[in-house]
Known about the structure:
Layout: E1 8-13, E2 18-22, E3 28-31, E4 35-38, E5 45-48, H1 52-58, E6 61-64, H2 77-91, E7 102-107, H3 117-129, E8 134-140, H4 145-150, E9 159-161
Amino acid sequence: MFSAFKPVVYVQISPERLSLKNLKTGQTLAEVPELALSAPPRRRVLAVGSEARAAAASASAEVVNPFAHPRSMVSDFTVAELLLQHQLRRVLVPSLLTVAPCVIVHPLGSPAGGFTQVERRAFREMARGAGASEVFVWTGRPLTDEEARSRRAPEAGGGEWE
């Protein structure tokens, strides 16, 4: 059950867009899911989203979209976790007593046969690694804020919680 003090963040993931909404504050963020990473061996995040390509052009960096792969929604787990962690920090309000959020991950699209157990597990572990205290994966139509807060399945449109 969600705590009144715990922020709930609804995350929609696709190769074209990563959207986050803090359901407690209403703060939203929607950007291209790209990171500009510095060269190995010590890779660091130089920029995220629409700023990634500009940062890569001005520095020796690689632009990576961890959700762009022809066979799977997650092509680079480590980079996806970094991206989600960075974006979660942007939608959560910093405070003295920071509470780890509950994250609802909603992979968009409907691959043939649905998302595999491996992909659903990757989404859960990615959100946990990014700082979530609780993680739920939703597959189905986009949720309203109330549906996401209560984790109630929509009457029409189906879908599945995990």
